[in-house]
Design goal:
The chain has 10 helices and 6 strands; from the N terminus they run αββββαααααααααββ. By secondary structure, the protein is α+β, with helices and mostly antiparallel strands. The longest helix has 20 residues, at 151-170.
């Protein structure tokens, strides 16, 4: 393809990938925006890689061909350009905060870990280099939470630290997990099941107080508490619910198994 043919392809306003030259493609994912891709095969696997800074027409056809040839030459030398790029990206990860921002993109429910990381972990070790975090730093984190009389949060924060550094070890960003040696006894202690419930008369009193203080406890909050109490689920199970989980005609809510009784998923 030449420039005229490429412009004609883009003028059609269709999404897709179009071969331009050997191993070089022009791709449109969003109408009005196009970029260059290189196709290559390595270890019997076919791959596509976006050329760095390769938007069209900012990068000309001639430049794209030159960059494509350079990448294909690397492949002939046994180098996988995508793997090389991933390695370069991981080098940019230095601090605990860098690592969390990288990790959170791959979490199924990032909002769950965010609470513990942002409030309890980041203020103390977020700016530290991953490999320099030690057991004393972890102890400082859980001690601070425990002293605030939040044993359950202390345990969950410790678990978050363990998961966070386990993944860092997997990518050789840390030589060991500084949270490994700590147990629930070092944080909030072994948690016991609670059997605290409100009677119907107590609930009636609570909602009466809500109604008497509508300037502070607005209608949205009133409805949210009502919804939370009706099925008796955890708060995050309700707030993260999806429309497709509900069958309004049958009056059934099918809660996904992986969203129940899960504190951290990393």
């Amino acid at each position: 393809m030449n420039d005229k043919q490429i412009k004609s392809f883009l003028k059609d306003q269709t999404k897709g990938r179009k071969a331009v030259a050997d191993n070089l493609y022009i791709r449109v994912q969003t109408i009005g925006k196009a970029y260059w891709e290189v196709r290559y095969s390595i270890n019997n696997k076919r791959k596509f890689m976006r050329i760095e800074g390769g938007s069209y027409p900012a990068m000309s056809l001639a430049t794209a061909k030159h960059k494509s040839s350079s990448l294909i030459q690397k492949v002939r030398e046994g180098v996988d350009p995508l793997a090389e790029k991933a390695r370069a990206d991981s080098v940019k990860i230095r601090t605990v905060d860098d690592w969390y921002k990288y990790l959170v993109r791959n979490l199924k429910h990032p909002e769950i870990t965010k609470r513990y990381y942002e409030k309890e972990i980041r203020p103390l070790i977020g700016d530290l280099t991953i490999s320099h975090v030690n057991a004393r730093d972890i102890k400082g984190i859980i001690d601070k939470v425990t002293k605030s009389n939040r044993p359950s949060i202390a345990n969950k924060t410790l678990l978050c630290c363990k998961k966070l550094f386990n993944h860092a070890c997997k990518l050789d960003l840390a030589n060991n997990n500084p949270a490994t040696a700590f147990k629930p006894a070092d944080a909030g202690g072994v948690q016991k099941s609670r059997a605290i419930v409100l009677s119907f008369s107590e609930l009636k009193t609570v909602f009466e107080i809500f109604r008497q203080n509508q300037d502070m406890f607005v209608r949205d909050n009133y409805l949210a508490i009502s919804l939370l109490l009706s099925p008796g689920v955890r708060k995050t199970e309700l707030t993260a619910a999806k429309w497709e989980e509900f069958d309004l005609e049958k009056g059934v809510w099918k809660l996904e198994e992986e969203r129940t009784k899960q504190v951290l998923r990393m």
